[in-house]
Structures are given as C-alpha cells and as structure tokens.
Amino acid sequence: MIPDSILNLPSCAEALQRQLIQWAEINSGSTHIAGLERMRQTLRDLFSGRTDLTIEEISLRGTDARALRVTCRPDATRRVLLLGHYDTVYAADHPFQSCEVLSDGWLRGPGVADMKGGLLGLVTVIELLSRLPEGANLGWEALFTPDEEIGSTASTPVILESAKRHHLGLVFEPARSTGDLVRSRMGTGNFQLVCHGRAAHAGHVPNPGRNAILALSEFLLELSRLPEEFPGVLANVGRIEGGSTALNVVPDFAKAGINLRITRVADEALVRGRVQELLAKYGAREGYRFEFSGEFDCPPKECGPAEEAVFVEWQKAGHDLAVPAFSWVHTGGGSDGNLLSAAGLPNLDGIGPIGDYLHSEREKCNLASLVQRTQIAALFLSRWAKGELPAVDRMLGTPKR
Amino acid sequence: MSAEAHHDHRNDSLPHWVALLRSWSEINSGFDHADGLLRMLVALEAEFGRFPATLTRLTPAAGALAPTLSIRCRPEAKVQVLLSGHYDTVFGREHPFQRCAAPKSGILNGPGVADMKGGLVVMLAALRAFEASPLRENLGWEVLLNADEEDGSLGSRQHLLEAAGRHHLGLVFEPSPVGDDVVRSRKGTAVLRVVVTGQAAHSSLVRTEGRNAVVALSRLLVEMHDLNASLPGIILNVANCQGGGAVNVVPDHATAELHLRSSTQAEGLEAIERLRTLVADVNQKNGYTARLEGGFNRPPMGADDMRDAWIECLQATASRQGCSLQGREVQSASDANFFASAGLPTIDGLGVDGDDLHSDREHCRIDSIGRRAELVSRFLLELAEGRLPHPPFRPLSSR
Lengths: 401, 399
What we know:
The complex is a heterodimer. Chain A is built from twelve helices and 18 strands. By secondary structure, chain A is of the alpha+beta class. In chain A, the strands form five sheets. Chain A has a six-stranded mixed sheet, with helices on both faces. A four-stranded antiparallel sheet of chain A has the order 4-5-18-17. In chain A, strands 11-13-9-14 form a four-stranded antiparallel sheet. Chain A starts with a helix and ends in a 5-residue tail after the last helix. The two termini of chain B are 24 Å apart. By secondary structure, chain B is an alpha/beta fold. In chain B, helix 9 (305-321) packs across helix 11. Helix content of chain B is 33%, strand content 23%. At the A-B interface, helix 6, strand 11, strand 12 and strand 13 of A face helix 6, strand 9 and strand 10 of B. Strand 11 (233-243) of chain A pairs antiparallel with strand 9 (234-244) of chain B.
C-alpha cells in the first residue's frame, strides 16, 4: 500500500522544476558568503511557521558561512539524519549561473544535481511525511552545510555531532549518471613530501652534491606504485617543484604534493607503514633528508550490513513505484557520507536525483528522477516509520546519543 | 693621445690594481641587470680608453642586455692577439652579495673578484706594461668584453666567432683552474629542457582516465641521470623541475631543465642521442607525449696538440719569471670553447687565482694579480720580439 501523496508526486513535477531553477540561480559558491546566506535563508523560510520544529543557525569555526539545522521529534524511537550541502563549486564570478531546460528531460544548471536537486528532494520528503500519520513516529534532523565542496573542514564537527543522535543517515548527493547509488566511497588525504639534498657546483668530479630532485623522483616512483601493492589504494602525485634556474648547481631542494585515497579504514595503517619504510630507506642515503606531512582528513565510507539492509528496501521501494531498476557502486570521490560512516552512523549516499557532468558547465539533472528518487525516500521512511522493516530495524540498532 | 696616457708609471703599482678591482667588484653587473652592466661598461671604457686603440660598442643579438666592447690596437701589425673576458657576473641586482672586502691579508672577497673582474684587471695591467715597451709595434691586439657570458653568451656569440678569425692567438682571462695553472681542456655544455604531457583527470581516476605527467617525468629523470654512470665523459645535472597544481587533479604537464657537460663533441652528441631515445620511449605510451628541447650551447674544447704547444711556450715564459704552471682539464665551459670551435688557438684560465665562484664566498688571492699581469705582459713581449719558439701562425680569415 503506497500513500497517495507519494504516488501523486509526479503531478508536482512542474512546481519542483520551477523551484529547482530558482535555487540553482541563487549563486552559492563555497566562498560566496552573501550567496550562501541567501540560499540558507531560502531553505529556512520553508520551515517557518511550523511550531514543532527547532531551527538553528550554527556558527562554524574559520568561516562566516553557517550551517542550518532543523530538528523534529528528537526523542522519537526511529531517528534519521537528512544531510545535504547548499554550497556549489561555482564561484560568484563563474560564467555558469543560469539554467536551461534541455529537450530530453534534463535540466542543465549550476548545482542542479550537486546538490540543489538533492536538497529539493530532501525538503519534499519532509513535506510528504508531515502529511502522513506515520510521520509522527519518526524523528528527523535536516542538516544543511556550506562547505562540502571545499572539504567540509568547518562543518565536520557539526556533522559528527549530529551523526551520534541518529539511527540512519540519508545523504542526498546525486545518483550516478547510470542511476546507481553510492555503495562506498574512498577516503582521501593530501600530503607533502619534501626532500633536502646538498647543493654543489655541478662540474665537480667526484661531486659532493646530493640531487634532491633525483632522490625525490625515485621516492615518488615507488609511492606511485602503492596501488599495485595495496588494492583499493590510489596515489596521485599532483605537483612537483624543485631546483632553480642556476643550471650548473646540483639542486638541494625539491617537494611534491600527493593525494592518497583508501577504500577501507584499515588501508590507512598499511599505507602509512609503507610510507614509513620508504622514508627510512631514502632517508638512510647519505646527505639526504625527507619530510612527509599530511593526513587522511576524509576517512573511507565502507559498506556494512546495515547499509546492505537499507539498500534492499530502497530497491524494493523503487520497484514498487515502478522506478527503473538501479544498483549501487563504489566511487573514488568522497562526500559527507564518509564523515557519517566515520562517526559510526549507517547511511545511504547518492539518493538524490540522477546527475551528470558535475563540477562543469555541462552539469545536468534528470527531472524525472528528481520526482522518482524523492518518492523512493519518502516511501522507505514511511514504511520504516510504520514498523514494516524489521530487518532494517535489526541492523540499525541503537544510536549512541 | 699623450705619452703619459700610454704609460702612467704612477698607477702601475699593485695597490692601484687592487683598488680598481674593489671598485669594479662593487659595481653590480649581474647578467640580468641592464643598468649595472652599462655602468660597468662605462668604467671599462674609461680604463681601456687610455690606450691608443679604437673602442667599439658592438650591438648584441637578443639575449644580452649590454654591448660587447671591442678595443682594438694596431690591426695592421704582423701578430694579432685576442684578449677576451666578460664583464657580467652571476650576482643579480637583488643578490645580497654586493660588497668587496679583504677578510684577511692577501685575500679579496667580493662579487666577481675572480669571475672575472680580477681577470679584467690582469688584462689591463698586462697591456699597460706591454704598451710601455717599444716592442709593442710588432704586435696588435683586441680586447673583447661581453656582457652575457654567465647566461651562455647567446647575444655575443656572433661577435666572439667573428673576432676569432682576426687573430693568431686567443687569451681568455677566466680564473686559473688552480694556483698558477691554465686550462688545457674544457667540457662543452648543453642546456636541455624536457617537457612531458599526460592527461588530466580527477585524482580518483588516476589509474583509469588519468595519465600522470609528473610521475612520467620522474621516471624519465631517473633514467636520464643514469647516463652519468654509463657515459663517463659526461656530467648531466637535473637542475630544476616543475609540474602539476592541485593535488586532487592528475597533472597533465611537467617540465625539467638539464645541464649537460661533455669532454668531446662525440660524447656530448651520443648523450643527447640517448636522451632522445628515452624521450621517444615515453612517446610510445598511450596518452603521454614527451619532447627534448635545446642542445649544445658551448661545444667541448678538447685537449689538442696545438694548444698543448702554446701552453709549452707559456711555460717557458713562466720559468723565466720564476714560476711554473701546467695545463689542466676543467669541467666547465667558457667563451674559450667558442674560440676553439672557430679554430683559434686559445689559452684560457689566465685570470686570477680564486675560488668559491658563484657563491658569496667568491675570493681571489691578491698576489696572483701582479704575477698573472707580469706573465701575460712578458708573454706578449716575447711574442712581439719574435724570440719565442711557438707553433706556426695560421693565416687570418679577416683583419
């Protein structure tokens, strides 16, 4: 039995499309504080007048941007965290600022998929549940953050704190262009490797110099082979710099910037162990000194049995709503879902509308999927609230509070 | 020109030359400092203008910021000798090393005191002594001073090569290799640039869509540097590298600059050929391109019998002065390499005895100024006198 309000959501498709265009055309690039404030106010206005809600604007360390938190029934027996970011990658002066309805059922525009489309799905789910009696059994918290596209540095403590209060997290990031959700995400960290050698005139034979560029190059070659040794690990040497324009001098300094990605939490220890071995090996060379710094600031999001259980019901809801079948996939890119997993909160990620060409001027959102994915989320939560998903309840357990 | 101007005895003492060197050292004439080079040029014209000679500012080709100065005296004389030096230094206007000091007795520490304003003073002092003798009429000379030697002499090279054809013998006043010795051979130098391109992608796609240009360059540099072991006649220095940007993007561009020295032309060309092969291997890989730019700047100046014979003549002169010297193999190149490549018998390293060149410890031994000036003036006088048994002169290609 599917509630009529959910079944009838397609009749609101045009209104949703208009709303999405309006939101996408509010520039809220991660560094555009005034634009972020406009977008946050727009979201906040949706909840005004509801006396059953707690609305908080949360100041964040190191930025003037704020997070918005809306809480309902924090003491309910089943509590879900609805997570979305309202910043985009498009700065205030980026040429991509407006939307275009494409002829094939897609909407092209800044952030339409990543993730204003998801935000629209999120608030629509809240709206649908508020009209269903079983909605009264469900506690929820909607958390809107302003800095996901620049690493969620400021929001991380807030997200981790919210994660502890809930049984389940739903992350409204876009679905893949294939329609698939995200099963797992790699963790990621940025690191710097510095090599100090010894300068000398290049013409001396034998040469007392120690070429920092050469030693660093050898080190980087070994580092770039980490993925061969550890499946599920990726290493990208993103930047290198060393020496000077004095061509007859053996360079005594070189450095590299490296992005490392891991699939499992346990990979971090493996990678760090290997790096330590390399540091010991190269540092033992006479006349050289290496420095390695940085950390995995975004832990991997692994798929556990709770996610498996939720996804089965998600697919079933999709099937019952006659939504085209979809699967879920592993992806290298991180999201705030990684933080929920790090905090121990089971969560399903990539439940927003289908998107493509994210972070480019070709970014687009599939309009039919905007309705469908919202219906699925609402139907799942309705069933969970009614106690119809005992397998999910078993897996989600009790939150830590 | 008065007789006094030709020969001013009051100014021939060592303290005079030391004072002159200190003042020249403190005129910043970094190869990239146009105003400073012009100030130095004017100072040189003031000193060399006291000879009965023709001063010409030769317009440089692109690359040099100031003219090459030619001072030519008696171009009609039977014997023609080229004396060459550079008035630029490696120390730019902003470099902290700008003052000349005498940290201890007998030593001058200052920018260019050895490389090679000291050599210019030796040249001037030697010519002053030589011009005081009536024997001078038998020998004509040309002083050639360029402003971009430290930058590869690209702008002055043509002037150097043309001047080589006007002379029987070249004397270059770079600092001595060690003590009183001179240069027997010099390595040639090539300046090379490696450019690698790959394919950009998000760093999570580094194994699939991305082609990492920085890693490809790193591998190439390690392979290239191995040539130092397999080709003993060369020295290859990887001097700098640069590539990529944001670390979460697979970099699609990386470059490095290499400095190559070789003892012979053949070894140098072989080294470049081997480098090209390594670069070609990268081009075989899907999604990557690599190229090698640049080539020999100064060709090697290998040891040869003609130079050895001239060094023997100089040794004979030195022994009459009570000194001894030998020819030495030197790893770096100078403008002597150009003169040698043009077929001019050339003795280099006739400047001062100094050390720690290209650093703020650069210094010279003061007594070497007088000893070197005496050696060169004696040598010119004996040459003019015709009693020095020297190798046969080649016919001049121009006058």
